[in-house]
Structure formats: structure tokens, C-alpha cells
């Protein structure tokens, strides 16, 4: 899957083309500001990464990408709180995605039924650190 094509599609469909295309790449290891390993990540300097070993799972990549694109749209300072979940809700309604809960940290992945991402692919919420 070509990340750039998917990004451009989601930007047009879910964000009305408002997002400035980031430096988009796949990486073997993605860590957040606290050094914790992540499946994908957005940095406000304009980088968006998805873990390279997930590329064979396009539905998961699309969900991770749209999650990070909401971070991009609102800015990472809002983390997964009300500003994030409000914007995620707008995207969810527009795109037919699961509705975000109070904590948007696993949106939209945790709203997907078991098996959605393919046989043997299980998405589980990580314990809060
Ligand atoms: Zn997030």
C-alpha cells in the first residue's frame, strides 16, 4: 500500500483537504515523547509515521493513519482529550467509523469488531502508563 495515496484520499474525504501533507514514512520503531513504543505517530514538526511491519494490514494502517491525522488536525498538545475526540467524532460521522469514547487514545481501532483487520490480527488497548 502506498501511504501517500491513502493519506491524500483520507485528507480529501475526511478533512476536506485541509491538512498540509506531512513527511510520511514507515519506520521499524516509533516512540512517543515518553519513549514508549507506538504503532504510529504524529509529530507537530510535520512527521507522520506508521510501523513498517503493519503495512500488510491495510485496514489497520488506514485506521492508524486517520487517528494520527486527527492529531495533526488539532495539534498534539490536546493528546486524546475532548478536543481530539470532538474532531474524531466529526471524522467518524463523515467516514462511517466507530464513534470515539471519552478517551480517544484507541479510536477508531477499539471500536472495530474482532477479526476486522484480518485473520490473526488482534488490536488490544495498551495499559495506561
Ligand atoms: Zn493518538
Quick recap:
The chain is of the alpha+beta class.
What does this structure look like?
34% of the residues lie in helices and 11% in strands. It is of the alpha+beta class and 129 residues long. It has a single domain (3-111), classed as Zincin-like (2-Layer Sandwich), CATH 3.30.2010. A three-stranded mixed beta sheet has the order 1-3-2, covered by helices on one side. The radius of gyration is 14 Å and the shape is globular. It binds zinc ion. Zinc ion binds at residues 67, 71, 80, 105.
Q: What is the CATH first-level class name? A: Alpha Beta
Q: Give me the CATH fold name.
A: Zincin-like
Q: Helix/strand-derived class?
A: alpha+beta
Shape: globular
The rounded Rg comes to 14 Å
Q: What's the number of helices?
A: 3
| Average pLDDT figure | 94
How many strands, which pairing sense, and closed or not: the largest β-sheet?
3 strands, mixed
**Beta-strand residue fraction:** 5-15%
Distinct ligands: zinc ion
Tell me the distance between the termini: 32 Å
Widest sheet, order of strands: 1-3-2
Helical proportion?
25-40%
| Low-confidence parts | none
Helix and strand run = HEEEHH
Number of strands: 3
Fourth CATH level, the homologous superfamily: Metalloproteases ("zincins"), catalytic domain
Amino acid at each position: 500500500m502506498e501511504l501517500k495515496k491513502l493519506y491524500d484520499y483520507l485528507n480529501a474525504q475526511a478533512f476536506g483537504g485541509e491538512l498540509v501533507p506531512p513527511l510520511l514514512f514507515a519506520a521499524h520503531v516509533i516512540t512517543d515523547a515518553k519513549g514508549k513504543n507506538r504503532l504510529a505517530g504524529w509529530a507537530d514538526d510535520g512527521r507522520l509515521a506508521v510501523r513498517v511491519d503493519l503495512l500488510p494490514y491495510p485496514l489497520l494502517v488506514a485506521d492508524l493513519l486517520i487517528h494520527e491525522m486527527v492529531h495533526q488536525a488539532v495539534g498534539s498538545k490536546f493528546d486524546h482529550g475532548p478536543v481530539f475526540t470532538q474532531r474524531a467524532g466529526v471524522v467518524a460521522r463523515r467516514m462511517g467509523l466507530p464513534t470515539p469514547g471519552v478517551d480517544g487514545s484507541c479510536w477508531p481501532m477499539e471500536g472495530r469488531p474482532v477479526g476486522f483487520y484480518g485473520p490473526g490480527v488482534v488490536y488490544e488497548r495498551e495499559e495506561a502508563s
